[in-house]
Amino acid sequence: MKELTMTDLIALCKNRGFIFAGSEIYGGLSNSWDYGPLGVELKNNLKSAWWKRFVQQEPNNVGLDSAIIMNPKVWEASGHLSGFSDPLMDCKACKTRHRADKLIEEWIASEEQAGRKHRVGSVEAMSAEKMQDFIAKNKIVCPNCKKCDFTPIRQFNLMFKTFIGVTEDNTNTVYLRPETAGGIFVNFKNVQRATRSKMPLGICQIGKAFRNEITPGNFIFRTREFEQMEMEFFCHPSSSKEWHTYYRQACFDFLVSIGINKDDLRFRDHSKEELVFYSTATTDIEYKYPFGWGELWGIANRTDYDLTQHQKFSGEDLSYTDPFTNETYIPHVVEPSVGVDRMFLAVLCSSYRVEQIADDDERVVLGLSPKIAPIKCAILPLSKKLEENAFKLFQNLNNSFRCEYDTTGSIGKRYRRQDEIGTPFCITYDFDSETDHKVTVRNRDTMEQERVAIDDLVGYLHKKIYN
Ligand code: GAP
After folding, report:
1. Is residue 43 lining ligand 1, measured as CB closer than 6 Å?
2. Nearest CA to ligand 1 atom 27
3. Rounded to an integer, what distance in angstroms lies between the CA atom of residue 422 and that of residue 401?
4. Given the CA of residue 179, which atom of ligand 1 is nearest to it?
5. Is the pTM of this model over 0.85?
6. C-beta separation of 244 from 218 below 8 A
7. Backbone phi, psi, residue 221, to 5°
């Protein structure tokens, strides 16, 4: 089978209305993307599936929707103001700017490709000084001009700054949130009191996050504006290891349930050196994107770090007293955090296929799970004369499912168009339908056709889509 390239995928996304380049008519804005009519449907379906699984189906969990712009003290407490930065160096020869850690990682990868292994450990865990020494010692060159002549490393904070009110000075500087988690931590007490929850309690949120990434790229994999689906799961310190194990598997199973190929997923447990000082365990679920393995979902055991910090900086008591044992403690937190856009990309990569259906005929299929497909079924009248009743059927089915109505081109061409956008069912309304009140339902994957009574259609499709 033909290997999927990012170029194929980006072209399909643009041509079929999944994703467009941002601000395109003005020449674009690099690495910004707009989700089109099909993209927004698919994205909403992913978010609903996540919400259903992690809020609705988990008895300990509830939802939240907090503000994007928060009191800047939140980011002081969380460590983002002082430590959320990338190590940057400039090439003195050609004046291009680079992330030191990325230069090292790319060098290691190219060395490995050439059959040379280096025992480096985790690059993320290296100090700026260590990175600088490593680059000098191994004579790692600038990817642009191939010289090894860099400035010392400077830390570049990734948060987007803006100002509240009419004057622009330090006293009214605020930040666009770099993660949704901050809003959950500061609302822990509110949510716990309002819902009268006992521990464990999971608070879930979906929302935009902003990071001034130095090396955005790979389509929607790394962008400066993206969406996260995060959960902060507050629990007794003695149970956090167990909950980490539980969510590690639950997140993996969720990805498989929305149609991501199991063989293209793997767990990557962080080594001791890689773990941040307060975390006792972090696992990334990685996906094999066309450009290589990359992080999709992070599941971290963050201990009591966040609540302790917010308690210290806000002066509010964020401890919890167990009503049965009277034990008072700061809950520990397990945090599964995933990007909607990365999940979207993994789902598209996993479902895209080109099938040879005859010697001189092939079709592009997005084999999306029916549950998340943007369009569930397309209604295709076989003749103009049938449009009145076919359109009525479309309007009726649209009350239950997101449907499309297509009258243009041959039936074969219409099938292909729907295959390419992942529509699991095509419904042909023909002359017999006028008298026998049945339609032909064609299955995207098997291409088999079945005659179904119009009165039974909603139940039939519901079963096929959601079971
Ligand atoms: N609160 C924890 C946190 O934000 P993270 O590993 O920085 O952790 C979590 O981000 C997830 O958000 C990642 O696993 C990834 O799916 C997504 N993500 C992070 N940065 C991103 C970016 N620049 N573009 C798109 N998605 C991103």
Report:
1. no
2. 339
3. 14
4. 4
5. yes
6. no
7. -70, -50
Ligand 1 contacts CB of residue 230 (under 6 A):
yes
Q: What type of residue is 86?
A: D
pLDDT in tens, 156-168: 999 999 999 888 7
Q: How far is the CA of 380 from the centre of ligand 1 (A)?
A: 41
Testing ligand 1's pocket by substitution, the residue of 33, 215, 226, 254 carrying the most ligand atoms inside 8 A of its CB is 226
Which residue among 342, 344, 347 is best mutated to probe the pocket of ligand 1, counting the most ligand atoms within 8 A of its Cβ? 342
- Cβ atoms of 100 and 89 within 8 Å: the answer is yes
Q: According to the model, what pLDDT value does residue 121 have? A: 77
What is the model's pLDDT at position 335?
98
Query: How many angstroms is it from 410 CA to the middle of ligand 1?
Result: 44
> Ligand 1 within 6 A of 225 CB?
no
- pLDDT tens digits for 271-328? 998 899 999 999 999 999 999 999 999 999 999 999 999 999 999 999 999 999 999 9
151 Cβ contact list (under 8 Å, min separation 6)? 89, 90, 92
Looking from the CA of residue 298, the nearest atom of ligand 1 is 14
C-alpha atoms less than 13 angstroms from C-alpha of 443 in its C-beta half-sphere: 13
> Dihedral through CA 94, CA 95, CA 100, CA 105, nearest 10?
-40
Which residue CA neighbors atom 21 of ligand 1 most closely? 222
Count the neighbouring beta carbons within 10 Å of the beta carbon of residue 76.
Answer: 13
Which residues, listed in sequence order, are joined to residue 69 by a DSSP beta bridge? 176
Give yes or no for residue 341 CB within 6 A of ligand 1: yes
Q: Cα 324–240–177 angle (5° rounding)?
A: 110
Question: Which residue's CA is minimally distant from atom 11 of ligand 1?
Answer: 338
Within 10 Å of residue 103's Cβ, how many Cβ atoms?
Answer: 22
| Cα–Cα dist 58/106, whole Å | 41
Q: What is the pLDDT of residue 1?
A: 64
Query: Ligand 1: does its nearest atom lie under 6 Å from the Cβ of 226?
Result: yes
Q: Using CA atoms, how far apart are residues 272 and 279, in angstroms rounded to an integer? A: 10
Residues of the chain under the 70 pLDDT cut: 1
The dihedral through the CA atoms of 97, 102, 103, 106 has a sign that is negative
The reported pLDDT for the residue numbered 25 is: 97
| Gyration radius of the chain over CA positions | 26
In the chain, what percentage of residues exceed pLDDT 90?
Answer: 91
Q: Measure Cα distances from 41 to 17, 355, 373 in Å.
A: 11, 25, 8
